[in-house]
């Protein structure tokens, strides 16, 4: 099982927020048994603490959970108490209460065994969210890669649903930029983020996160937009004269995207925003 161990210096650090500290301590001392056959409470607690101290520790690992991982990152970063409450409820009861409905992990998921390819705390949360939206394909840690990729595909309406149910935002919308509108969508995202909201973007990962763009653009990956936007629009007859950059969260780290306008627009597909 690929799970990090907790550094002693991290273990002694204080968690953010008194309410989150109390909730974590109560979970730590709880005698309620786990409903997950493959998870170790000490490891889950250690990984939770690491994430509470540094939200960039949230990591989808080798599982295709980019959409829910983007949501989880913002949950840990902005709502540490709710993160602890969700983790405890999932660990002890197999589900948690969303904004309007209860989200449950199936018995099959809770009893699944195998190499998780990611931390236990992240798996418990992300696999539950992913499974809750799947009608056909089950979430299996050891399923063939093609099956895991199909089961892990995240649609815009699922991101909107998690932004409402998990993060609690009332004003949630998706702005697609398949043909045009990238600049307007980014400007709106910047406004939402500045006011305390969240923004998640659908992109072609190779096109915007590497120097080896694919010949055929297609949406592959969700990221969290963090801010530090710089938008310099080019001449309409020469889009490459413009430049777009921003900070994002993805794959357990903070990344900086800085591309010419033409390339950015070719590999940028839309934004889900959430605000109160």
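^ structure tokens above, recovered residues below v
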């Amino acid at each position: 099982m690929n799970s990090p161990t907790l550094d002693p210096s991290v273990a002694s650090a204080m968690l953010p927020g008194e309410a989150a500290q109390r909730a974590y301590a109560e979970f730590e001392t709880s005698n309620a048994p786990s409903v997950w056959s493959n998870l170790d409470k000490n490891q889950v607690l250690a990984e939770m603490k690491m994430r509470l101290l540094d939200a960039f520790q949230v990591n989808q690992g080798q599982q295709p959970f980019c959409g829910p991982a983007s949501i989880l990152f913002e949950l840990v970063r902005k709502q540490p108490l709710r993160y602890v409450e969700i983790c405890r409820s999932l660990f002890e009861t197999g589900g948690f209460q969303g904004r309007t409905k209860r989200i449950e992990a199936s018995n099959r998921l809770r009893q699944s065994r195998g190499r998780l390819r990611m931390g236990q705390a992240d798996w418990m949360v992300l696999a539950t969210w992913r499974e809750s939206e799947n009608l056909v394909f089950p979430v299996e840690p050891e399923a063939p890669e093609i099956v895991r990729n199909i089961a892990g595909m995240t649609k815009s309406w699922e991101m909107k649903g998690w932004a409402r149910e998990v993060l609690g935002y009332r004003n949630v919308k998706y702005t697609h930029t398949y043909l045009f509108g990238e600049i307007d969508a980014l400007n709106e995202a910047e406004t939402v983020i500045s006011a305390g909201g969240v923004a998640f973007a659908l992109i072609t990962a190779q096109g915007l996160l590497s120097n080896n763009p694919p010949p055929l653009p297609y949406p592959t990956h969700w990221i969290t937009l963090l801010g530090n936007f710089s938008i310099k629009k080019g001449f309409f007859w020469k889009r490459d004269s413009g430049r777009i950059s921003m900070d994002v969260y993805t794959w357990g780290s903070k990344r900086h995207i800085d591309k010419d306008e033409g390339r950015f627009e070719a590999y940028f597909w839309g934004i889900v925003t959430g605000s109160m």
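The mean pLDDT is 88.
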